[in-house]
Design goal:
alpha+beta, 31% helix
């Protein structure tokens, strides 16, 4: 499994951060941690609460990542379909999908 370069990791964080700032005002900050081919994304809300959102899997290109939602009920990430119908897509599409599910559940 390929692992993203440092520049790809930084680009991912910048793209997600910019998209969150313009689309999800309830997110104070995104936290992204990298482990091998995976990027784990959490949202920090205005009250300081951190919400696990998703895991992205690098597949060799910075514009298309595999997508897995976080499920609190099982404390696991599970590969999931994006609204586009695929298991992979842009990081921004993945963030939108995860935020619609997780932030709506919190009533934000």
């Amino acid at each position: 499994m390929p692992t993203p370069s440092e520049s790809t990791r930084l680009s991912l964080e910048q793209r997600l951060g910019e998209h969150a700032r313009t689309t999800w005002p309830q997110i104070k900050r995104l936290h992204v941690r990298h482990r091998g081919a995976f990027a784990y994304v959490e949202a920090e809300l205005a009250d300081g609460e951190r919400v696990k959102l998703m895991r992205l899997r690098y597949g060799g290109t910075a514009s298309r990542w595999g997508f897995a939602l976080y499920y609190a009920s099982s404390d696991r990430y599970e590969d999931s379909l994006l609204p586009t119908g695929g298991f992979a897509g842009t990081p921004q599409d993945a963030l939108d999908c995860a935020c619609h599910l997780h932030l709506a559940a919190l009533g934000t």
